[in-house]
Amino acid sequence: MQIRYFAWVREKVGIEEETLDLPGNITTVADLIAYLKTVDDNHAAAFEEEDAIRVALDQMHVEADAELGAAREVAFFPPMTGG
Amino acid sequence: MSCKPLIRVQAEDFDPAAEADRLTAGRKDVGALVSFIGLCRDDGGKLAALELEHYPGMAETEIGRIATQACGRWPLTGLTVIHRFGKIPAGDNIVLVIAASSHRRAAFEAADFLMDFLKTRAPFWKKEHLASGTADTWVKATEIDDAAAERWS
């Protein structure tokens, strides 16, 4: 699965994107966040304030309980500050 | 009434007058045009520039979703949304929303709605470059913006 990071989430993880083969027991966004926290210290730091992070699945906003399903791309980012 | 939103996400500046003309050219049913321009303010001399990061693809798609909702909610004759990304010095334009309708109320409300949802739903993030040269910081989302978006539900 393609994983993309933006703004301070990107800075903390240290990369813009990565492709990961996920264990089969990861079915929701929340599962994925729990898994990413175990990848390394940078990921753990980025997801420390989990409630402050927003998620998009295939470029649509979703909540943490959303099923990953057949999504190809998941993105993690802080609350938006455009406009 | 037809309303096909024009959405652009770009690094370049925009020309508000030219964009307004595009919504009225060759038609006589437009009675009201409301345009909003968001600019980069310097916060009393403290801010040199904003760096706007965006999620290419989703930015256009999400603005399109918000614009389509506005077209369903108000009888608009046209709607234009242009959002810039990249480094924007204080004093320069960031965002343009123009809503056109036969009557003013729809145009005012649609432009207001667009801005409230752009702020909370469109994937853009602002980083402040300070005039003092001290470390750049990410702008925090405000509860005021969240509350502004909620009043439309």
From TrEMBL, chain A:
Domain of life, per lineage: Bacteria
NCBIfam families referenced in this protein's UniProt entry, alphabetically: moaD (TIGR01682)
Protein name: Molybdopterin converting factor subunit 1
UniProt organism field: Roseibium aggregatum
TrEMBL record, chain B:
One biological process term in Gene Ontology: Mo-molybdopterin cofactor biosynthetic process
Biochemical pathway: Cofactor biosynthesis; molybdopterin biosynthesis
UniProt keyword annotations, A-Z: Molybdenum cofactor biosynthesis
Cross-referenced Gene3D superfamilies: Molybdopterin biosynthesis MoaE subunit (3.90.1170.40)
Keyword Cell membrane: no
InterPro entries with a match to the protein in the record: MoaE_sf, Mopterin_biosynth_MoaE
Catalytic activity: 2 [molybdopterin-synthase sulfur-carrier protein]-C-terminal-Gly-aminoethanethioate + cyclic pyranopterin phosphate + H2O = molybdopterin + 2 [molybdopterin-synthase sulfur-carrier protein]-C-terminal Gly-Gly + 2 H(+)
Single Gene Ontology MF annotation: molybdopterin synthase activity
Domain of life: Bacteria
Pfam families: MoaE (PF02391)
EC number(s) recorded for this UniProt protein: 2.8.1.12
Subunit structure: Heterotetramer of 2 MoaD subunits and 2 MoaE subunits. Also stable as homodimer. The enzyme changes between these two forms during catalysis.
Record function comment: Converts molybdopterin precursor Z into molybdopterin. This requires the incorporation of two sulfur atoms into precursor Z to generate a dithiolene group. The sulfur is provided by MoaD.
Family, similarity comment: Belongs to the MoaE family.
Name of the protein: Molybdopterin synthase catalytic subunit
Organism: Roseibium aggregatum
